[in-house]
Design a protein that fits this description.
This protein is mostly beta strands. The protein has one domain. About 10% of the residues lie in helices and about 50% in strands. The chain has one helix and eleven strands, in the order E-H-E-E-E-E-E-E-E-E-E-E.
Length: about 140
């Protein structure tokens, strides 16, 4: 699995880089888990591999199963997401961190205005590809 990525984020700038690689990842609500006792939010997503150039045999690009976890999370708030609708699929648009008083607000912004707001002690995120890539059904498309 030489094409797999594993990244760490320890600052808002690091999270911006990670966000660009996670853009357009699809996440099942049931694959999102907040473990309050260990202060960790984790999920597995189908990430579009923006870093890979189009290849002749995969002109629509490819996706890969990717795990992401954020540590030192004190609180999680969902807006526009029914956390009980396990089969609903969200499309991750961006991740951003903002300093607020003595904590950090980390926003996971999804299509349709849905957001997970994490209150954390610091930025501490790990992203790792878990599988080989496969051909995407379609290439993500953005309009202004």
């Amino acid at each position: 699995m030489s094409d797999t990525l594993k990244l760490l984020a320890h600052s808002a700038e690091d999270l911006t880089v990670m966000s660009s690689l996670m853009q357009d990842a699809t996440v099942r609500v049931g694959d999102i888990d907040y473990m309050a006792t260990s202060h960790r939010l984790a999920f597995v997503a189908n990430r579009f591999r923006w870093e890979k150039k189009r290849r002749f045999f995969r002109p629509k690009g490819e996706r890969v199963r990717t795990g992401l976890h954020l540590n030192s999370v004190i609180k999680v708030q969902a807006q526009g997401i029914d956390m009980n609708a396990a089969d609903d699929v969200l499309e991750l648009l961006s991740m951003e961190a903002h300093t607020k008083d003595e904590a950090i607000d980390i926003l996971l912004n999804f299509a349709g205005g849905a957001t997970l707001k994490l209150t954390a002690e610091c930025v501490d995120a790990v992203m790792a590809d878990l599988t080989e890539g496969w051909e995407a059904l379609t290439r993500p498309h953005h309009t202004d």
